[in-house]
């Protein structure tokens, strides 16, 4: 029941109608009978600063930030956590008595999803497809674990920028390579392939890599929530395949705990996500 004492949380993004976060968080709040509710707001880029000010004005407790605002929001906050600074993106805001604090739960969410699948990328070679917003958090998470990180992106300069950024971080322990043409230089020693590109969002999209590159030994982690050509082909090849629901769940769990201070009902939130995806 929403009452005059309900605490508001939200997600700001554009577009936002497809977001699964409201159902996931509301299921968690209801299960624990917490007086919170979570809604989605479609926030245009030129209105972001007003939306952030509204967190204070309306005394909202927490907000998730998604595409395309994760980087632009940083300069609008009072405090940014070290990990979010290193990644260069914020996906979670906590309003602590009008002080807006920014966190990034995407990287830890990705790590938790690997951990719960029993996958350790320690000392392995990872091929990261894409160098956009979500690739930043994944590259940061992988760069603390893998032996080698190979980045491929359609726009090579963005892959180079991501490489330079990750290389400059104290937390990075791996070597990083950028490849400019996946067709000519398919790396042979790869263990883990992570797709962060938007290829696969639409059913007629081509795969982000040629199917000939896939080997049964590969673990294929596709950040897209639904079944894609990449996921289908990887399954047929005999690869272990993960989709984006695991990372979505765990980044949400971590945000939920930052806002409420209580342990999130992970299985309730997972069931909701899987029933909708
Ligand atoms: P997100 O925050 O979801 O990562 P993004 O920052 O817009 O979204 O990044 C999208 C990624 O998908 C980028 O790596 C993009 O490549 P470019 O940097 O070259 O734009 C990639 N991508 C999008 N459409 C693509 C396409 N048709 N072919 C190959 N890569 C594509």
Question: How would you describe this protein?
Answer:
The protein has 277 residues and is α/β, with parallel strands linked by helices. Helix content is 35%, strand content 20%. The chain contains 9 helices and 12 strands. It has helices at residues 21-31, 48-57, 82-87, 106-116, 133-143, 156-167, 229-237, 245-260, 266-276, and strands spanning 7-13, 36-42, 62-65, 79-80, 92-96, 99-103, 125-129, 148-152, 175-179, 192-195, 219-222, 240-242. The strands form 2 sheets. Strands 2-1-3-5-6-4 form a 6-stranded mixed sheet, sandwiched between helices. Strands 9-8-7-10-11-12 form a 6-stranded parallel sheet, sandwiched between helices. The longest helix is centred in the last third of the chain and has 16 residues, at 245-260. The radius of gyration is 19 Å and the shape is globular. The model has no long low-confidence stretch (mean pLDDT 96).
Measured between the Cα atoms of the first and last residue, the distance is 26 Å
Distinct small molecules: 2'-monophosphoadenosine-5'-diphosphate
Poorly predicted parts: none
Secondary-structure element order, as H and E?
Answer: EHEHEEHEEHEHEHEEEHEHH
Q: Describe the sheet with the most strands.
A: 6 strands, mixed
- The computed structural class is alpha/beta
Beta-strand level of the residues, as a percent range?
15-25%
Q: How do the strands of the widest beta sheet line up side by side?
A: 2-1-3-5-6-4
Average predicted confidence as pLDDT:
96
Number of H/I helices: 9
Give Rg in angstroms. 19 Å
């Amino acid at each position: 029941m929403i009452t005059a004492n309900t605490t508001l949380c939200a997600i700001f993004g554009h577009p936002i109608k497809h977001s699964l976060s409201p159902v996931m968080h509301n299921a968690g709040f209801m299960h624990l009978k917490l007086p919170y509710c979570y809604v989605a707001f479609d926030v245009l880029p030129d209105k972001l600063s007003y939306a952030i000010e509204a967190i204070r004005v309306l005394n909202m407790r927490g907000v998730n930030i998604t595409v395309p605002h994760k980087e632009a929001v940083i300069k609008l906050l009072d405090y940014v956590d070290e990990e979010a600074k290193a990644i260069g993106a914020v996906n979670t805001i906590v309003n602590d008595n009008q002080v807006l604090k920014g966190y990034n739960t995407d990287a830890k969410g990705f790590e938790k999803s690997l951990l719960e699948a029993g996958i350790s990328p320690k000392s392995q070679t990872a091929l990261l497809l894409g160098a956009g917003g979500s690739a930043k958090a994944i590259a940061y998470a992988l760069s603390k674990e893998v032996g080698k990180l190979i980045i491929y992106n359609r726009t090579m300069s963005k892959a180079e920028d991501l490489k330079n950024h990750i290389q400059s971080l104290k937390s990075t322990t791996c070597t990083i390579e950028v490849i400019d043409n996946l067709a000519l230089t398919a790396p042979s020693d790869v263990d883990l392939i992570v797709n962060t590109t938007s290829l696969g969002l639409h059913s007629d999209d081509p795969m982000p890599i040629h199917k000939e590159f896939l080997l049964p030994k590969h673990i294929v982690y596709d950040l897209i929530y639904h079944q894609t050509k990449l996921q289908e082909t990887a399954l047929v090849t005999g690869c272990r395949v993960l989709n984006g629901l695991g990372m979505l769940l765990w980044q949400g769990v971590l945000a939920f705990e930052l806002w409420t201070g209580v342990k999130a009902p992970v299985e309730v939130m997972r069931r909701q996500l899987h029933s909708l995806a």
